[in-house]
Specification:
By secondary structure, this protein is of the alpha+beta class. The protein has helices at about 10-30, 35-75, and strands spanning about 75-80, 85-90, 95-100, 110-115, 120-125, 130-135, 145-155, 165, 170-175, 210, 215-225, 225-235, 240-245, 250-255, 265-270, 275-280, 290-295, 300-310, 315-320. The strands form 4 sheets. Strands 2, 4, 5, 7, 8 and 9 form a 6-stranded mixed β-sheet that branches. A 6-stranded mixed β-sheet has the order 10-11-19-16-13-14, with no helix packed on it. The longest helix has about 40 residues, at about 35-75.
């Protein structure tokens, strides 16, 4: 049925059917009523029921349209490169390509490199330009075909819906080392002189286990002085991780529940030896393993690292104090 108005044809059809029901069918019911008062009651009931059902259908249709609009306005992210079959070679810089829906250009996207189900490197936080190149890979990463890139929308407008995406597995290779051509050595006759007694240099052993857990060192770094600060926050998403931070086998942060907010701690290094700083997990949280972002800062410089830990292993860094 067409109407001369521009309103919804569906609503017009529904309304017409209910008015026909109220005007023709309900009065027929009054013929069987025993009293005039009963007839009025029956007609009133039919009219009220028709109006109620018509308005209820209007509310249902508006709710359905609202749900469709919310779904249409949700943000989405898809990483188009790397993809299945991609091969990256360390130490060559790499590029990232992606596509988004309903995410502004000035909104940042954070990218991570994942090996199996463990984050091994934060690739960076970039503006939503759909492309970035010149991204450096950690030279210490092993070769393998079980890598993928994960992207997460930063500062979402709808905190109940965060756009995120993980690529298919791809391969990372390491470039072969170039052979160094040794120059020809001309032998010279040297008069032997008495050798001085060699002075033994005592080396500090590197900690490889702690309370039965294997320790893996992912980085060695230098700082300008022994007094530093470390700031901790949950890497990726808050899922109830509880951790401790150990420096040279002594807890400097104990049973700390990670949040999105940075928490700062002041610590002092031993300038006479390499200092091992490692992450110890007390639980696995909702999404294992426990992953923490750490900012290490001295008086002049700062550096961000990512450490992972589960109930069998810990990741660590070695920190040296410059002379």
């Amino acid at each position: 049925m067409k109407t001369k108005y521009s309103g919804s044809l569906k609503f017009a059809n529904h309304k017409l059917l209910f008015y026909l029901y109220a005007l023709f069918l309900c009065p027929l019911l009054t013929i069987h009523a025993h009293t005039t008062e009963a007839a009025k009651t029956d007609l009133s009931f039919c009219t009220d029921a028709s109006d109620f059902r018509f308005h209820q259908w209007q509310k249902d249709d508006l709710a359905e349209l609202s749900d469709q609009r919310i779904i249409a306005e949700r943000t989405a992210l898809e990483i188009t490169y790397p993809s299945e079959g991609t091969v990256w070679t360390i130490p060559d810089p790499v590029e990232l390509k992606w596509y988004t829906k309903n995410i502004p250009v000035d909104r940042a996207i954070r990218f991570y490199l994942v090996k199996d189900d463990m984050v091994v490197q934060e690739l960076g936080k970039f503006e939503n330009n759909n492309f970035v190149d010149g991204v450096s890979l950690d030279r210490s990463l092993p070769a393998g075909n079980n890598y993928r890139v994960m992207g997460i929308e930063m500062f979402p407008a709808d905190k109940d819906h965060i756009a995120k995406y993980a690529t298919a597995f791809f391969t990372i290779n390491k470039a072969p080392r170039k052979k160094t051509v040794q120059p020809e050595i001309v032998k010279e006759v040297v008069v032997a002189e008495p050798e001085e007694a060699a002075v033994a240099i005592e080396e500090t052993p590197v900690r490889n286990t702690f309370e039965g857990r294997k320790i893996t060192y992912i980085k060695e770094m230098n700082v300008n002085n022994a007094d530093i600060s470390i700031s901790l926050w949950d890497h990726g998403r808050k899922d109830g991780d509880v951790v401790s931070i150990y420096l040279n086998g002594v807890a400097v942060v104990s049973n700390y529940a990670l949040t999105y907010q940075k928490q700062k701690f002041e610590i002092q290094l031993d300038a006479s030896k390499p200092n091992d700083l490692f992450l110890y997990a007390h639980n696995l949280g909702k999404y294992p393993p426990n992953t923490v972002s750490i900012e290490i800062k001295d008086k002049t410089d700062s550096e961000n690292i990512v450490l992972n830990s589960d109930l069998k292993s810990c990741e660590a860094v070695l920190i040296n104090v410059k002379d």
